[in-house]
Design brief:
12 strands, eight-stranded mixed β-sheet, Alkaline Phosphatase, subunit A, alpha/beta, four-stranded antiparallel β-sheet, Arylsulfatase, C-terminal domain, 2 domains, 457 residues, single chain
């Protein structure tokens, strides 16, 4: 059935979820609202982010361009302060130019931190509400904003950002040195047992932490259920594209902040009843850069220059007019807590990672001195440094622990993937090809050293 009009768009994101949901096969996670949304959506089983960290990945989700192309190669909040380059266009700006009303509610993490008015002006939103960190506050604001938008005479774009299940600042409920998933308002959930991913050591402390994570996912799911109920209640269900996507993998060792699959895998579901987008699962490789061109095509809006993704419409349409062309996804990591530049290419079967620094094998993402989970890594795998190149056969070695780089039997695959990765870096203008990349704080320090400014704290 063709759409009756240009669709409304509700774009929902959350932090650090990966694919840790019931609808993605994690049976101990209680996520009835998202499971129900998945039943009515096109679910992408092999969607991948462009970076295993918050801001760079989100910059891609909302521009359709890779992090190094947007300028966001690290976190956007102080003191990191990476930002979109001035010429970069957010999807809100592109849709606003096409006649859409645009609003942002909740977490904004794809450009430099600022006031509501500053973010609205920079990204092209009519309205921005960043107030409230808890999911229930975001849902209340989003529901109120949705009611206002639904009563208008123009299509709308509503972006809703949830913090959960991000790790939360320690409260009295946790011991010193540990930052878990509960904060002071979430309860652990082990009602159906606990799932410890295969890349982690399964012990009592890991199960305690995974119960916390399951509770945070359960809390998030409840809030999204309330928001979806408001969509139904306001009568905009059929003519609204609903996108739910997370930014990157779970905030666990060898997942978030790594280029291994657990860091890159994301949940992605898209529902649009009027266009027949729903009730299917797709196993093709897709990337976070593919969402913006998809939404612009659905809205009949002109894309910005140099969109680097590919519209997902061939995978969303029941009878596609053109074939799907992506046979690989690319991802990157440059800065998070420290400089650790890496790039990777992933095909159906193989993953190749190029490492540009001698840093520990993976960056700890727990934000804790006292960690509860440990990666399951064989004793013969070095953890104190990166090898220059890593190559994995994902079919035979899904946990990515047996590095095949340099082995004669795999030389042709390694050569091919190195060539493809280099071509992608060159064609997308990756500054890493010219040498080391300096962070925004470097310029601030130089201004202080030369007497033209002070280091901002």
């Amino acid at each position: 059935m063709p759409p009756r009009q240009r669709p409304n768009i509700i774009f929902i994101t959350c932090h650090d979820l990966g694919r840790f949901l019931g609808c993605y096969g994690v049976e101990t996670v209680r996520s009835p609202a998202l499971d129900a949304l998945a039943e009515e959506s096109v679910v992408f089983e092999r969607a991948h982010c462009t970076a295993p960290q918050c801001s760079p990945s989100r910059a891609s989700l909302f521009t359709g361009r890779y992090p190094h192309s947007t300028g966001v190669m690290g976190l956007t909040q102080p003191p990191f302060e990476w930002d979109l380059r001035p010429q970069e266009r957010h999807v809100a700006s592109l849709l606003g130019g096409a006649g859409y009303r645009t609003a942002l509610v909740g977490i904004h993490h794809e450009s430099k931190t600022g006031s509501d008015d500053a973010v609205a002006e920079r990204l092209g939103f009519d309205v921005v509400h960043q107030r409230g960190q808890r999911g229930e506050d975001v849902t209340a604001l989003a529901t109120a904003q949705l009611g206002e938008l639904a009563g208008g005479d123009r299509p709308f774009y509503l972006q809703v950002g949830y913090l959960e299940p991000h790790r939360l600042r320690p409260r009295e409920r946790t011991e010193d040195g540990y930052q878990g998933f509960l904060g002071d308002y979430i309860e652990p959930d082990a009602q159906r047992g606990v799932t410890v991913p295969g890349y982690l050591v399964d012990d009592a402390r890991a199960r305690e932490e995974l119960a916390e994570l399951q509770g945070a996912v359960r809390y998030l799911d409840t809030q999204i259920g309330h928001l979806m109920a408001a969509v139904d209640r306001l009568g905009v269900r059929d003519d609204t594209v609903v996108v739910f996507v997370t930014d990157h993998g779970l905030a666990l060792p060898r997942a978030k902040c790594s280029l291994y699959d657990p860091g890159l895998e994301i949940a992605l579901m898209v529902r649009y009843p009027a266009a027949g987008w729903g009730g299917r699962r797709r196993s093709e490789l897709v990337s976070g850069v593919d969402l913006v061109p998809t939404l612009l095509e659905a809205a009949g809006a002109e894309p910005a220059n140099q969109i680097q993704g590919t519209s997902l419409s061939p995978l969303l349409d029941a009878s596609p007019a053109r074939p799907w062309s992506r046979d690989a996804v690319f991802a990157e990591f440059t800065y998070h807590e420290y400089y650790d530049p890496r790039r990777c290419v992933r095909t159906d079967r193989h993953k190749l990672i190029a490492n540009f620094s001698v840093a520990p094998a993976f960056m700890d993402c727990s934000s804790s001195w006292d960690r509860r989970t440990r990666p399951r890594v064989p004793m013969n795998v070095p953890t104190g440094f990166h090898p220059p190149v890593e190559l994995y056969d994902l079919e035979l070695d899904p946990l990515e622990v047996s590095n095949l780089a340099g082995e004669p039997d795999h030389l042709s695959v390694e050569t091919d993937l190195l060539g493809r990765l280099h071509t992608w870096m060159r064609d997308t203008g990756d500054p890493l090809l010219a040498g080391a990349v300096t962070p925004p704080l470097h310029a601030s320090a130089m201004r202080s050293l030369t007497g033209t400014g002070v280091i901002r704290r």
